[in-house]
Amino acid sequence: MKIIRNTFHVLLIVTAVVGLNACGAKDPVSELQSKKWNVVATNGESYTAEFGPLVYELEKNGHEYNLKATTETIKEKTGDLTLSPSKE
Fold first, then answer.
1. Distance CA 72, CA 65 (A)
2. In terms of C-beta density within 10 A (0-12 exposed, 13-18 middle, 19 or more buried), how is residue 72 classed?
């Protein structure tokens, strides 16, 4: 069950990145896909992830990205996320 949940999160992340890239944001896709990220959700979960699609509003804060859930379903499942580069 945890693998399915984490896979869902990664797929959502890639969707958000692709959506932001289409909106003219400075190519966050390359940076986000170039490394592993530590993910911390407002629901208390944390894990390391690589990128796939996601539906979040994205804000870069230094070396971290803050992702704000844009739908009630995502808010209930994961809450907002903070991504920081993994040291792995």
1. 20
2. exposed
Query: Residue 53 corresponds to which tokens in the numbers above?
Result: 């699609």
Q: How many residues does the chain have?
A: 88
Which residue carries 């969707």 as its tokens?
Answer: 15
Give the CA angle between residues 30, 59, 51 to the nearest 5°.
35
Q: Is the pLDDT of residue 18 over 80?
A: no
pLDDT digits (tens, 9 = 90+) for 69-88: 888 888 888 889 898 888 86
Domain count for the chain, please give it: 1
Domain with 75 in it: 2-85
Cβ partners under 8 Å of residue 5, min gap 6: 77
